[in-house]
Fold each of these.
Amino acid sequence: MSHRRLFFMAALLLGSIFSCEEEKKENEEIPKDSFRAEVAATPVRVANAEQRTFDYLINATGKIDAVDQVKVVIQRQGILSELNVKEGDFVEKGAVLARLDDSEANFRMEKARIQLKNAQANYESEILSFGTIMSSDDEERKGSITDQIKAKSGLFAAEIDLKEAQLEIEKSVVKAPTSGRVADLQIKKGSLVSNGAEFMEIINTNSLELRVKVLESDINLISLGQKAEVYPVSGSAEPFSGTVRSINPKVDENGLVQVSILVNNGKGLLPGMNARAIIRAPQNNSIVVPKQALVYRSSRAVVFTIENNESKWNYVEVGKDNGKEVEILSGIEPGSTVITTNNLQLAHQAPVQIVKD
């Protein structure tokens, strides 16, 4: 009985070994494609990589200023006896803004006129002594004697004193140097003012500019006359259009360059307002994809394309970014179908299914 049992167990063991080897052989013969077919395709949306002009957007912030903004300065000492404007008033160029008390200036004027008359009389008296020379044809000699007598009689000095007195009278009247609105009025009527005191500012609110700071790396993309959009921080339904008016040929200590943008029809804007500018810098013949098509794996930029209903992993070199689209310098060809959704965890050669809107 024991020999028969041993024989039976040996036969059973050999049978199980042969069956395991056959099962392993069958498993090895199953093609890998059958497993891939069992994986559900990832639904994705796609876009085309286009070769076209790409608008690189340069963003910068700054303050609104008036193109014509002039400080009015008092040109002589005196009491402000008349004030004709208040802050916010619009004035035309040459309009009388204020007057200083000119009683002392008028007194000096009368005094200067009397001194001039006395000097003129002395001159005429002295010139009679040179009647022969003055009646001759020697113009050079006559001119020399005339100048000497004018100096000796005090006529030269009297003429200068009269001009100075006239100038003091003129300085008593403060006129608008340009057209615009009155701002920052510093002096009240009746105040004693000194020579050189700041009186007010006149601002032309019809001509405004936005001064912004731009990175030095972007300055080569900006030129005079380039189009820009201006967005006030205070909020506006539509942006104001503008053009680049000037570029400061100097980089400051922070690596920034000042750019002035002339605002077209800036109605509602005031000097001193904060605003943001977007300057469009077109880049020609760029390969452009939606920003959603770009993902990063191990700190490297990747764009997935589709070939034979499978995802293809492409390392790319990225150029400029305008917030909506990305410039691709190398790594994919124009016309490629790029994946824009469900690409964050997508693998290479994974089955995908294009979802249409």
Amino acid sequence: MNTENRFSAEQFLTSRRSVRQYQKGLVLSDAELNEILELASRAPSSWNLQHWRYLVVREQANKEKLLKIAFGQQQVADAAAVIIVLGDLEANKVTSKVYEKAAPEIRDLMVKQVDGAYANNPGLARDEAIRNASLAAMQLMLAAKAKGYDTVPMGGYNKDALISEFQIPDRYVPVVMIPIGKAEKEGRATDRLPLEYQVIHERF
């Protein structure tokens, strides 16, 4: 194992902070945004269905609308962009697309398997949408950090107002809102519970 790379990865992971004060007027270019989203989309997902969708908000007028929806949390108006990560409740509908390059028998098998799972478990669609979109959200924040940008995950917003204002179809469920930009004030370090509070070995 390359020890230098291992320690740089550890330092990278521990250096991420949730930033709530951003430099105003910063522009996030299409190229930079796409690089971050491409990296985020390398996150794992069940059946490789890639249950996430990204609603990107960069226009100031729309960020001001988000400000009201987010109960006045100023970071959504000041950040260069706000990414609203959505979970796809009908991800099974893209199975054929995901496996279009596979052999026909493999593609047919996967479509049957996925559709069967979704049909036989009413709660599966929502669970998978939120679970897999959350994986992409975390990867998005790490990708932004790797590109020199700061983020903060937000769950404090009016979901119904968000859906109404931005005309989000019923197919998608809002999972998390992530402002991206450059810190005006660095996020503070936070403590973590000792591992003995977090880890259960083998069984309870």
Amino acid sequence: MNAQQIKIMLELQDAMNTKVTADWRARGYEWYRAIWVECAELMDHYGWKWWKKQAPDTEQVALELIDIWHFGLSILLQSGASLDDISDKIQSELVIATDEQDFRLDLEKFAAATLGDRQFHLGLFARLMAGVGMSFDQLYRGYVGKNVLNFFRQDHGYKDGSYRKHWHDGREDNEHLVEVVLTLDATKAEFKDELYRALVARYQA
């Protein structure tokens, strides 16, 4: 984890929120509500029903955690704190470790804390990452990848319906994204720009 990567994510989140609503900070959106609803979806992917056989879908759980990260960053940005202060907070509080054997209990603690004060609890979120073996690098790649793809879709006709979700080889854009992300160096400051250019090249092939 480094300050540069955290700053890139904060800037991407601000840019995406601004693209959707120019004055988003002044709107007071209930980001906390989006988080606890995602928690419920996440629980379904992990499995909780004792009356039927269920195996945790950790890949889907990881994707839901990345969605929650989007909303969490929005809460931190909406607080009005500077990027440097938010970055310092993330670096000090995002300690990826847990002493809880049951992931579902950690998830319930996180959801309860979110509902309790409507804030984003980095330490509790980090416990969820640890519970499914997610590293900061995986969070970063997954977050930047999804964010860049969202921008790419908007720039290529998603709003007016002209965007092609299935590309030249019949595969969805998400599949191309996963492949491209793995070929790039996520530690470089240009990671998001290189990713965007790689998507353009594939889309136009």
Amino acid sequence: MIPDAPWLLERERRCRRDGTGLTTADLVGCWRLEQIWNKGSRQPASAAAALLRGLAARLRLSAAGADSEDGGLRLANSVRLGALELRFEGVGRLEGRRPLLVFSFERLLLVLGGRVLIERALPQPDPLRRPFFALIAAEHHGWLAARGRGGGLALWLLEGTDGENEVRVNEN
């Protein structure tokens, strides 16, 4: 079952009080953006979500080596148009009881057919202004829901393990 906005909002109220119990292991995978809701809206932003789905918007999360036991993650957020991909890569970690997935992007890549055309280092954000996802809920091998720093709500579906559409995180 893919949740709707009323179910997610109720679950969000409960997780603010009780936390989610989500761990790094629950988040690892390649997540395909399915639906978004603007801040304060119970109606999905269907046109924006359709555009992002058409651009193959993906969030890839992987354990960050030795730090993974206490929430360390590598992440890549990308969109793709044919063989052209725009990808932001960085690091994140789980913080707090809810928890929050706090992250920052270290570099931007423009890739064409697997070949890096442009790679740029990105400045680190002010620690008090780092982006985050307030995790709401996840269904094992199914979906992930979170609210972003700007107040929007997002729902991602876990991609299959065939690797066909996976976003690869550059480990360098």
